[in-house]
Amino acid sequence: MATMTLRTPDDTVPRRPLSARLSTPQVWGIVLLAPYMLVFLAFVVYPVCYGLWLARHPASYVALYHDPIFARAAINTLIFLVIGINFKMVVALFLSGFFIQERSWIKWLSVLFILPWAVPSIPTILSVRFMFNPEWGMVNQLIFKLTGEDGPNWLNDPTVALTMAIGMHIWKSLPFWTLILMTGRLAIPGDLFEAAAVDGATWWQKFRFITWPSVRTLYLTCTLLSMIWTLGDFNSVYLLTGGGPADLTHVLSTLGIRYLRLDQLSLAMASIVCALPFVVPLMYFMMKRLSR
Amino acid sequence: MKLPSLKLPSLREAGTEARLLLIGIPVFIWTMLPIYHMFLFAISPKEDAFAGKFWPDHPTLHNFHIVFYQQHYFLRDFWIQFWNSTVIAVSVGVLTLLIATATAFSISRLRVPGGRWVMNLALFTYFIPAAFLAVPMYRTMGNYGLLNNHWSLILAMVTIASPYAIWVLKQASDKLPVELDEAAIMDGATIPQIFRLVYLPLMMPSLVAIGCYALLLAWNEYLYAFLLLSKDTEITLPVALGNFLAADDSPWELLMTTGFIYALPPAAIYYVFKRYMVGGLTAGAVKS
Residue B2 domain-assigned? Predict the structure, then answer.
């Protein structure tokens, strides 16, 4: 029997095994694809399924509903995304127009401008944190020197602290988005602007009728992408405010980790699952957009 | 009274320049202040740093001396943590390059069946917010028995870096003409030969960019490092920096000095490879 089956591959064409139906490039293709597929299965599929399984208890959602910190974190996240990101993108769009001006000092400034993105975020966030230290920080000492009065306790006010966390995020990621929007602006043919100048168009008209239509799609893509990534921005909030004061400045990303540290894993996963109905459509949309 | 050689800017030009400066100066201050503040602390003795001065009375390199000789309780494992960061960053860079290059070659050049599907899955992973994946990842690493092992962080970072790496490399290799492969096959080249002799040399700029991207991502990572590693001799530098905050009387001037040292290599890598980074990464980063 064994010899019978061993003999067949050579002459039975229709029922050949899978390996024989594939050409050499395809076999190589599968071999080369294997490492990533292994990583993907072990560190994406398994954790995601496991996480969803952990979040299966309705009791977790009831507990979340009754946890005031969760509601606050959800609102903070919304503020962070809707106000913070849109503000950042408008500034990035504006600055991209500034940085494409042909001046040598602007070239040099753009080299420095990229620094926040090039350096790791931890030391710079901690640097800002100390700068706003109520007693020894540079800011309050300056306020004292100028006005003779003690400055505010910056990070102890939830509104101010959250604003500063958003500012920190903007400081870190503004250069990146400005750079992207610059490439978008530079791709616009220059003769469009020349023609507009001949027709006596104002600065605003040039922006409104030439620049904006050309970069609109890019701008929207960037905004969505930035929103998705900002959901995962843990450092800006955690290292600046630590979620404090009184857990009032948490966002969903720091809250999940907070539950995890408190050993409330199912709550951590449940808080993330609550965000999924908003995040997954965005992720799907972006995937479709980039895979074209 | 003529000024023949001196070309004075017209009033209009001067106005434009002034308006540009009005934007440029705030941008400069906003960008540099946190970095300057860090640098200021690194060269200040403790009294000067805590006095809120804009320049120390007695600038000193003493803080660097303390860090390099590990002469403080918080810094007793500085060099081993530096080493940990280096090993992990380099491993992530190399592993990501290997995996992503193989995948991109397979999808783009060999047109493996289902390749498009793999690309979409990878892209989908790219959009999972990192902090969301961190929670189940932490437990997964626990289940695999990898917690407190450098491999846990290396594998987690490879997972996070790969999707973007694959996407950028695929975009780049789609641009190479198909005729190249066909000509090589006509000459009797095998697939490994095409990969090594045709594909890799042509992809060099993108490979450099992606290698740097993955390396910097791993070097800069805080959240995963902080979750997955905990022993003082196992943690990376950013986690050690975060641990400074545990004490109320943290030596901030030393913290800033360590942070400054920690921030130098990635900044240097970025500026050295800027040509590749900007071309390879931002051009493909967001297609309109």
Answer: no
ipTM of the complex: 0.85
Sign of the alpha-carbon torsion through A46, A49, A51, A54: negative
Contact B24 A98 (CB under 8 A): yes
| CATH top-level class of A35-274 | mainly alpha
In the predicted structure, residue B28 carries a pLDDT above the cut 60: yes
B155 part of contact set with chain A, CB < 8 Å: yes
Residue B209: closest CA among B125, B132, B57, B104: B104
Measure in Å the smallest separation between the Cα of B2 and chain A Cα atoms.
28
Tell me the residue range of the domain where B220 lies: 74-281
pLDDT by residue (tens digit) across B82-127? Answer: 999 999 999 999 999 999 999 999 998 888 888 889 998 998 888 8
Query: In this structure, are residues B131 and A257 in contact, taking their beta carbons and an 8 Å threshold?
Result: yes
Secondary structure (3-state) at B28: helix
Q: Decide if A284 contacts A228 (C-beta within 8 A).
A: no
Q: To the nearest whole angstrom, how far is the Cα of A94 from the nearest Cα of chain B? A: 10
**Nearest C-alpha in B relative to A141:** B52
Q: Which residues of A179-197 are buried (b: 16+ CB within 10 A; e: fewer)?
A: bbbbbbbeeeeeeeeeeee
